[in-house]
Design brief:
Layout lengths: L1 H36 L5 E3 L3 H5 L3 H10 L2 E7 L4 H9 L7 E6 L9 E2 L5 H16 L5 E4 L4 E3 L1 H8 L9 E3 L1 E2 L6 E2 L5 E4 H10 L18 H11 L5 E4 L12 H11 L15 E3 L3 H13 L23
Helix pairs in contact: 4-10, 5-8
Main location: membrane
Subcellular location: Membrane
GO molecular function: glycoprotein-N-acetylgalactosamine 3-beta-galactosyltransferase activity
């Protein structure tokens, strides 16, 4: 009996060692594979003033004229007051802005996507934009109607980026394994990213219309899943001090938080000087932001900007 027990124990120990060895080797292979395909997260920063000043004045002027951003705003009829505010304020500073609605709304010009599903509206809007404007615009910026954007700051941030490279950037979020750009802060795609996404939109197994899951996921997460198949990964946009420039909250909330957390440095503890977006604004707050960003002036103080972005011909850009 004893020899049989010893043999049994030896067998158990040997089996355990083999299982452990297989597990370790398996992890080594998986780890190696992850190193080959893992995306190294980047914190993309804007160019500094010295870099811009190295460009000649004529080149800066030409660059300002040729740098073009197309804005996409997906909307629903219930957002009609925000829709009106966005149309009257910051979208005038886009080189072209178009609204993509869930149904036909006679009051506003919009492109009817004939669906209430925000992911379907987003993918249809991207397809429409690329099919029609692929040669005219370098960057494609999508924002919700509760977002306020400073397009000149967006252009400045993108100035040294190459639109022929697969950029996908904004405010990144990583709740689990999937890292994505939050639609609340706005999503920027380069022309190359749009090209890759456009190819995937016709491949249901990689970029499904309904997500292919029992539960529904948000449109920004679904976009990240599709772009991942194209080798396009989320990048967080920051200023030189590491502050986010795409924000998923309103400026007022940031100021309140700074007053609580940094009472002696409210301004420095709040937001980036070159913020691109704020989210969660009411229509009235949109107009207040417009006043503060574009209309309020301190006469007698001259700002010598190194770069000027001129509005397109025929624009009512103020």
């Amino acid at each position: 009996m004893l020899p049989e027990s010893i043999s049994f124990l030896k067998g158990v120990m040997l089996g355990s060692i083999c299982c452990a060895l297989i597990t370790v080797l398996g992890h080594m292979r998986i780890g190696h594979g992850n190193r080959l395909h893992r995306h190294e997260h980047h914190h993309l920063q804007a160019p500094n003033e010295e870099e811009i000043l190295k460009i000649s004045g004529d080149e800066r002027m030409e660059l300002g004229k040729s740098f073009r951003v197309y804005c996409l705003i997906p909307v629903k009829p219930k957002d009609v007051s925000l829709w009106a505010a966005v149309k009257e304020t910051w979208t005038k500073h886009c080189d072209k802005a178009e609204f993509f609605s869930s149904e036909n709304v006679p009051v506003f010009e919009s492109i009817n996507m004939e669906t209430n599903d925000m992911w379907l509206i987003m993918r249809k809007a991207y397809k429409y934009a690329f099919d029609k404007y692929r040669e005219q615009y370098h960057w494609f910026f999508l924002a919700r109607p509760a977002t306020f954007a400073i397009i000149e700051n967006l252009k400045y941030f993108l100035l040294k980026k190459d639109p022929s490279q697969p950029f996908y950037l904004g405010h990144t979020v990583k709740p689990g394994d999937l890292e994505y750009v939050s639609v609340e802060g706005g999503i920027v795609l380069s022309r190359e990213s749009m090209k890759r996404l456009h190819r995937l939109l016709n491949i249901p197994e990689k970029c499904p219309e309904q997500g292919g899951m029992i539960w529904k996921i948000s449109e920004d997460k679904q976009l990240a899943i599709c772009l991942k198949y194209a080798g396009v990964f989320a990048e967080n946009a920051e200023d030189a001090e590491g502050k986010d420039v795409f924000n998923t909250k309103a400026a007022g909330l940031f100021i309140k938080e700074a007053m609580t957390n940094h009472p002696n440095q409210v301004v420095e503890g709040c937001c980036s000087d070159m913020a691109v977006t704020f989210y969660g604004l009411t229509p009235n707050q949109m107009h207040v932001m417009m006043y503060g960003v574009y209309r309020l002036r301190a006469f007698g103080h001259i700002f010598n900007d190194a770069l000027i972005f001129l509005p397109p011909n025929g624009s009512d850009n103020d």
